[in-house]
Amino acid sequence: MSAASFLTDFHHVATFGATDNNGVERQAATAEDKLSRDWFAEFAARHGWEVRVDGIGNMFALIDFVPGAPYVMLGSHLDSQPLGGRFDGAYGVLAALHAAAEIAERVAAEGKVPVHNLAVVNWFNEEGGRFAPSIMGSSVFAGLMDETEMLQVADLGGVTVAQALEAIGYLGSDQRPDVAGYAEIHIEQGRILEREGLTLGAVDYSWHTQKLDIEVLGEQSHTGATAMADRHDALVAASKVVLLVHDVTRKFAAEALVSSVGRLTLEPNSPIVVARRVHLVADLRSASPQVVAEARGSLMADIAQIARDHDIRINVNDFDIREIQYYPQDGLELTEKVAANLGLGVRRIRTMAGHDSVAMNRIVPTVMMFIPSVDGVSHCEREFTTDADMVSGVAALTGVAWKMIHGALAETSSQPDSTKAFAS
Amino acid sequence: MSAASFLTDFHHVATFGATDNNGVERQAATAEDKLSRDWFAEFAARHGWEVRVDGIGNMFALIDFVPGAPYVMLGSHLDSQPLGGRFDGAYGVLAALHAAAEIAERVAAEGKVPVHNLAVVNWFNEEGGRFAPSIMGSSVFAGLMDETEMLQVADLGGVTVAQALEAIGYLGSDQRPDVAGYAEIHIEQGRILEREGLTLGAVDYSWHTQKLDIEVLGEQSHTGATAMADRHDALVAASKVVLLVHDVTRKFAAEALVSSVGRLTLEPNSPIVVARRVHLVADLRSASPQVVAEARGSLMADIAQIARDHDIRINVNDFDIREIQYYPQDGLELTEKVAANLGLGVRRIRTMAGHDSVAMNRIVPTVMMFIPSVDGVSHCEREFTTDADMVSGVAALTGVAWKMIHGALAETSSQPDSTKAFAS
Fold first, then answer.
1. Which of A72, A413, B59, B233 has its CA 20 to 30 A from that of B352?
2. Are residues B144 and B73 located together in one domain of the fold?
3. Range of the domain at A412
4. CA gap B198, B25 in Å, rounded
5. Nearest CA of chain A to the CA of B402: how many Å?
6. Is B220's Cβ below 8 Å from some Cβ in A?
7. 0.90 surpassed by complex ipTM
8. A82-138 pLDDT per residue, tens
């Protein structure tokens, strides 16, 4: 691999939907997303790789070594959050493309046929900022979400996934490739690697996460003419819910639970009308399902009390529950071996964020790796990772993928002993 | 006046934009607003009255008795809040049309020419739910707001006032009629008349009101991967501001101050992203400017503290400040005399809500009357006033208007002695 050509391509892709403050605005199936997709297809065509687009907009670039063999797939996503960072997702796709190009050259040079074929994937709508739920394309691929249902999901403007993909020319109908394994590299989005001065994380498990869909139903009235005592202000009650969702984390050890409200909409949202309805989404995550369950229980009780205090109705529904997923043990060991060969510092690390690899890990042996995030910030314009760390990550992914196309991990289960995984 | 024909027309107009729960959704310059405007024009045409539409979409129906004389104007507004009530505004316009028709008949029957001509007005965008600020049409008419500037105000979808009026065919260019006086009748939107068993309120002054435009600037981050300690969550800080705006009313005597946040928007508003920016509008109102000033001071200090606690920026700007306006003394006495003649119970009453009459009172002698609101609720679908009270109100407006076209109030100032007005 040429570090220079990788970096040139990475920084070029960061211009698609670039914002004034070094971020990107490239939400799923927008014109900016199309630019990055066209570039992906052009990169594949230039290398002579077949490109397929499936029925949910996932893009695959296929490199055939063995006619009829399944593919080891490398990838991530090119879509971003609104005013998001230029590393989240895009780094993983660019690393995969360059790792694949390097491997294709080495296979050709060696003249020895590997066990599996190789593919690079750009998953549709990992971010979920425009179309919820997130991790949509890989979850449909893995059979965890229904394609027909997902195609009907609409954004806040009423445009469906099917319409948006059609509009940018990426509602495909190609056959999905058979898959033998999956590897992904991503920025950490936390501060652990940076704090410990390490270059690589071998992701051992994903956190338990769930969301709460909360609807606060007050009564619409006049902000001037209605007496304070006669109001049933949905926004006042909702504000208390937002603070509860934040403060519940204090009931547990520091950082044992993270919990936030990121979406909130108000009706009618008029400056001189007391709100009748507030809809909000809370996101709870922990390494421990028990902590999430306790936090949820505490919130349910406190929310019920707020409803009584304000004489209004609050409906709460669980959704998007994602249980802890363990990555295969021999994948962790493979990452550690490759890191050692490259002289890169490595540690095992959990992911609090969801990733396409979490979905893929449900169906095939999967390796997930992290590289450091400066200051641990992510989903924002000042998200940053150094060129040197990115280049090291591409080398690690190349090493892991090389072993995988030659048969590593093919026989393992994705669910090792849980006690052992938790001890890391 | 025929009570039956007034009620038929009132309940017919309530079908334009009718909602499932007896309210109306008829925001300014929408297709539903156009229906009510077309009906207004048709009513005027049927009575042989000239209709004019001015450059901000105000509609005038002119009844000429004396060539060249100025007009006593009666009216209110046909636009509504989102999911608003069917009485707010529409009652005043319907009452004005039927009062005017009755007066025209009586003038013709008597054969005596009055001092002034008579007009009915449907003011544009009193509610301000779609296009802020509210009380737009009458404020432009009164020279309190700039027409060119108001035509450029955009709704949340980016459509300007000029575009919206053009789209429904009500961006006019007719000359505004000269005005000699103004009278308006409206539902109280509070519980005072109902509690005291009175039919009529003679409005003596409007409350002091002001808004605060508040921008909370945090840092966008990941709801999962970012440690709680590293977050600068704009929504958590904004929720504390919403509660402060509500709780500040408790520092004063019961109902001496009303204060609410009715509008709040979140960026980026994605379920898995900690918000970077929240924009909200607080509305403060009191009979006492000192109370509003004290509440504002208290909020400014507490908001500054929240900004320090969360290490984020909060920008606060005053806007839409409306000082107490007193209605003319002889208008109050006229209302009381007319009520006595009709056998209606009456009292003096302040308005906490803004009205078109508050703007008109700045330029001509103005009378404002209230009829009761059941349960005091308004700006919502269950807003209600009885047919009997509505019919009594039309009779009162007719009586007041009759005196005004014959010269009552023509010589008065609109700013009586303030001590006296406050004593009511």
1. B59
2. yes
3. 3-206+324-422
4. 30
5. 30
6. yes
7. no
8. 999 999 999 999 999 999 999 999 999 999 999 999 999 999 999 998 998 899 999
